[in-house]
Amino acid sequence: MRLRSFVAATLAVLAAAGCAIPVLQRELPQATGSALVERWPLTVGLVLAPGVEATQDKYVPDIGASIGPTLAWALEQRFQRVVVGSAPEHAGTFTVVGAAASGGYLEFEIALEDAQGREIDRWSIKGNGASVMVQGMVPIGLHYALALRDASAILITTLPDRPHIRGWLAAHGIDMPADGPALRATLTAAADDTRVALLPMPSSAENRILVASRARTCLGARLEPAIPTVEEETMRHSLYPWLEPSVAPASAPALLDFLGEPALRAVLEHMGIRYVVLFSGDTKTDFDKGGILCGGGFGAGGCFGFSWGTRASSFAAIVLDTRTGTTAGDPQAERTASVYMPAFILPIPLIGATEGEACDELAAHVRQLVRAPSPK
Question: How far is 167 from 289, CA to CA, in rounded Å?
Fold first, then answer.
């Protein structure tokens, strides 16, 4: 078992080192192009306190190198111009007072001062990237790229909600009657709406990358090519920052209601998406009967015995119709089979097929729901 864990960890580190730069470029929020938020016509400064650019943990030594460029991009989504440094002509200056990295999380302390240097607000932001923990000496770990992405989403979305910042904006003639996202340009709808978006169930936020991958193999591969699918990563990029873990609605009804917001609805129509499918489920194998004894000595060893149990695959989907603002259905599929593991020197598991059958059934239900005729 220790050897297996060591080999898996080594392969993970090598894989991370080999694709660190592409992962960094794809996962940092700069890769989205622009965020779906309104921009205020102000010029602000950005200052990093000493030590922020040196932020690291014991596995990833250069996290801090990405903090400045990423937070500058985030502020540029809200403000007309962002300048490194402070100056009297700026409406205000954002200072990253401190930063800490631990366990895939990034925490920032941020302060905003007005043009005269008086502190307007000070608060903390904690970005969550711990759903993927690839440990290795790489330019930046995937988990910290995701944490920076999440922290930027929090910064972008919560600025209008802070009373002191709202007062500061009002002093500069910016009134905010609404706190929802706003598109910067008008988008045209696609010719049809045949595409289906696949997202992890909101309750799967901590393991969303693994669940998104399973949704792709369990549903996406079975719906296509007849029904084109859009994966979770594409949706997060297109709707940034509103699907990041710390910002996204926490339930299926809340997500359905949120996707009805005109700005987000326009993006979905532009992408040709009408249905959003929330996926959850897993396959579990349990050898809970019998027993196998392993041992060795005098230059030889092996395992002897017989163990058996069950393998259960259980998957569920909630189909959201963004056009009508209703839930089209919530099908489920389950399959259970017996599993056996005889051992004569080496254990050899004999596992019944359950996952493929359960996915076939669930995909058939989803296919029927998204093809069902409904009023325009």
Answer: 66
Contacts of 221 (CB under 8 A, 6+ apart): none
Gap between the Cα atoms of 366 and 182, Å rounded: 31
Q: What is the pTM of this model?
A: 0.81
> Tell me, what DSSP letter sits at residue 50?
T
Let me know: does 79 contact 43? Beta carbons within 8 Å: yes
Phi/psi at 64 (5° precision): -60, -25
DSSP tag of 189: P
**DSSP per residue, 314-352:** EEEEEEEETTTTEEEE--EEEEEEEEEEEEEEEE--EE-
Tell me the C-alpha to C-alpha distance, in Å, between residue 196 and each of 60, 215, 343.
37, 12, 45
Helices (H), the chain: 2-18, 20-27, 67-78, 142-158, 163-171, 208-215, 221-223, 232-238, 252-259, 262-271, 355-371
Class of domain 195-371: alpha beta
- Give the number of other Cβ atoms within 10 Å of residue 225's Cβ: 6
Distances (CA, A) of 129 to 18, 134, 147, 173: 20, 11, 4, 37
Residues in the chain, pLDDT under 50: 1-23, 132-138, 179, 375-376
Tell me how far apart the alpha carbons of residues 153 and 176 are, in angstroms, rounded to a whole number.
Answer: 19
Distance CA 210, CA 201 (A): 12
Tokens of 61: 């030594």
Segment 76-124, tens digit of pLDDT: 999 999 999 988 899 999 999 999 998 889 999 999 999 999 999 999 9
Domain ranges of the chain: 2-171, 195-371
